[in-house]
Amino acid sequence: MKSASYLLIMMMLVGLASLFIIKRPDGKPYLSVDMIFGEAQQQANSLLDKSKRELNNVVDSAKSALGDETQSKSQATIYKWQDAKGNWHYSDRPNSRVNSQVHTLDPTKITIMAAENTDILKEKAEQGDQLDDKGGINGMKPSEVKKLVKDAQNVQKLMDQRAKQLDDT
């Protein structure tokens, strides 16, 4: 039984090998390594080309979507007016009661700052307004409070400078 299986397998291998040797009427063999791997290479190349086309379509769609967004951002308009107390107000709509100044925003000149982490303020508020052993309120020393106020004043100066720059443009 073993020899019959062995003989059958050997005949199949000889038959397969003969396809690489026996030639067709045009002089080419019926089967070649190039035929096997060349076809696989062609399929891989066509799949790669199709993937590239699809990727380029997606990139073009994204660019057009971003282009539309950029155009809408470049046309963004804000309105500014001053109330009776002298305070300036900004809005995306003009104030009908007073004369509003129109400002067109240029997205290339807008600076966006990241928000600070305010978790520490929440923790201190939860502790209550009780004096601690350091003599401060909510665990802050008087020197820390002074520094905090000074920092707030510096931030206010920066905001005023930025507002002045926006007014000058």
TrEMBL record:
It comes from Pseudoalteromonas obscura. InterPro entries: DUF4124 (IPR025392). Keywords: Membrane, Transmembrane, Transmembrane helix. This is DUF4124 domain-containing protein. Residues 75-108 form the DUF4124 domain. Pfam families: DUF4124. The keyword Membrane applies. The chain crosses the membrane at residues 6-22.
